[in-house]
Amino acid sequence: MRVELEPSYILHSKPYRETSMLVYVLTEQHGIVHMVSKGARKKGRNNLQPFTKMYLSWSGKSDLVSLNKIEHESSNYTNNFRAQVQCFYMHELIMKLIPSMSPAPELFYLYESTLKAMIEKPGDESVLRYFEVQLLAIMGHPLQLKFDYINDQIIEKNSIYRYDPDFGPTQVVTNSGRWNIITGSLISQLEKHDFSRENLPQAKKFLRGIMQYYLQGKPLMARRLLKVN
Q: What is the value of pTM for the model shown?
């Protein structure tokens, strides 16, 4: 297979053999692709930059293809440390939750729009929350936010619910403080993708718990660098 100049973003790279790099790439039409960039570690040859849209050409028949050509698009990405760690958090979620070589153009566009929003709205926590909600849908596990799954009643904003990742919310009497105990107000805002400032801490706790459920214990390095907002 040979692919020419496909829009792509670098998710992760690491040394490979003596002078090469192993690169994990989010591509527009082919999903996550593992590539070898031969000679990339030679002086002046490593031009694989994260957070920058690139057009990559590659070839190969196995799960590990050869990167042949790189063209860059200009990037306005900020050097803000917190924003960079938030992006690395996105990268880890994508690599750990999305299978390689699974075409998902909607994931590429979600990543690109999230990156743009982080530049335009630095420090806006709702940008990352929106990404998490949309990533769950792309994974095939969209949040069920419309009704109580036990009695089929509509969600009441003033009530408290326990959220089961496999079924959805059901009303409970008391707040135990666990990650999956949430208010009807937050459920409504999750459905509308419109978070109030006072609900953002609750949204962060809830979505982090949901992600951990699907990660099945896999650690995230970004959380060790910074408490991601």
A: 0.90
